[in-house]
Amino acid sequence: MGFQFARTAFGLLVLLRIGQVPFTQEDATNAIVAIRVTDISGAAVEGAEVGFAEQGTANREVKRTDKTGRALAELKPGKYELIVTGLGFMPTVIHYVEATAAGHKQIEIVLAPVPGCCADPVEPLIEQEHIEPRDTEIYEPFALGNTRTQDMQGKQIEVRLIPKKKSIKAGEVLEVRVEIWNVSSKALFIKEAIYNLCAVSPLSLRLELGPPPKPQPGHGCASDCVFTAKESFVTRLLYHWTTLSPGNFYGTAVALDPDNFPQLNTPGRWRLRGTYKSIGDLSSSPCFDTAPIPDIKEQIKGLPYEAWQGTVDTNAVWVEVVRPGGSPAVRK
Q: How far is the C-alpha of 217 from the C-alpha of 308, rounded, in Å?
């Protein structure tokens, strides 16, 4: 599994890898490129125009995204420039996308809104001073008991966010520790990857209730993995899943970059929270599978543990973003 790197028109580093893409193979020499376009909230962008321009030629290919934000293009091998535009959004350009013979690539694009465009009149921004955190704590109670929590087999896990610092300067990276605790009485399989901007991610994070963020250019990235006949059932299982014993936690450190979270460029107090989801299907994989295992369902039945499935919210964390050279406000 290899990696390629490219830069967008705005200087953002883009990770391009091969991804799982369903297709009809009319020409085995062509490349299949799947695009998914979302806005900065993670919602699908329907009707976005996705254009491929082959470098050094006049070849052009234009697709439009469907209601799920997806578009599929079959391209001749070559080097392309990718341009994505949408009504009310700033255009995003990736200057280098390589289409290889019989290759399969998946690219995620996030479009940023045009400044001052398309504000939602139904849900106006909540004024920050109307929702105040407690002076002595920055954590709210874990959200496992609220109405949005759907732990399919009772309270089995808790997902906790712990910021390295309560206050950062505008434009800095926010570092957050993520812990997934098994609060049940039995071991569980959980996803090995906790948070990934360039692939299907169990954890989604969001910043809420601050001032209007400064406009930012869009960004794009893609992820890949390919399974061949060399990868056994165990190898594939351990690639995507890990076991979590009762009373233990599995964690990682997540860096929230202002390029992906433009709120971190805007001074104010922001509430960070997230949602962790899993369908619990040990046979599913985002990898392009060239050699499916015929009896994978039977092999899964022989495993000693089940996979956790459901949806839970994390705790909420208040983070203050101050102007460069400034200091956190003193709360009385």
A: 37
